[in-house]
Design a protein that fits this description.
This protein is an alpha+beta fold. The protein contains four helices and eight strands; from the N terminus they run ββββααββββαα. Strand 7 and strand 8 (97-99) form a beta hairpin. It is globular and about 55 Å long.
């Protein structure tokens, strides 16, 4: 990065990075509850409109092979459930325990669901036909509803970039 942040390159022992002229090597492990590597969430509205596909290079920022080729241990479909900061471990839903020297929590954001009547079923799940719009799974759910019926109408609640992009892509 040109802003003085970390710069890294692959070496045999992990990643070689530098900051302020001090060289360091480190291994990277990434944990994510989705069954994919990193992707461009802004592009999900293009998938919803049919202009792009889940497999498009513009959506998937790095193919799964990229993680292996760069020595990154990627654990997809397995959420981090607990952290033991004294033992320096993360325990995943699968029971996998991963040790660390430095822990970076980079979870991004989650969809905010306001407390509104009709939004949830009595058991707390989202009501049928109600979706967040944050993940590929959310997008696939909306596409399934749209493909199952003719003349599907949608209401977008929210005024952020994704909401506005989704509304304009759907016109």
């Amino acid at each position: 990065r040109s802003d003085g942040g970390y710069r890294g390159e692959r070496s045999d022992g992990g990643y070689r990075g530098s900051r302020g002229g001090v060289a360091r090597e480190f291994d990277i492990t990434m944990i994510g509850d989705e069954p994919y590597g990193n992707y461009n969430r802004i592009m999900l509205s293009h998938v919803l409109s049919g202009e792009a596909d889940v497999e498009d290079d513009d959506l998937m920022l790095n193919p799964m092979a990229w993680y292996r080729e760069n020595g990154i241990a990627l654990h997809v479909g397995d959420s981090a459930e607990s952290i033991d900061r004294f033992a320096k471990t993360v325990t995943c839903a699968s029971g996998r325990v991963i040790g660390f020297d430095t822990l970076i929590i980079a979870t991004g954001s989650n969809t905010f669901f306001p407390n509104m009547d009709g939004l949830r079923e009595s058991d707390g799940r989202l009501a049928r036909g109600v979706f967040g719009f944050r993940t590929i799974a959310d997008t696939n759910g909306m596409l399934q509803v749209a493909q199952a019926r003719d003349d599907v109408r949608a209401v977008v609640i929210g005024g952020g970039l994704t909401a506005i992009d989704t509304a304009t892509e759907s016109l």
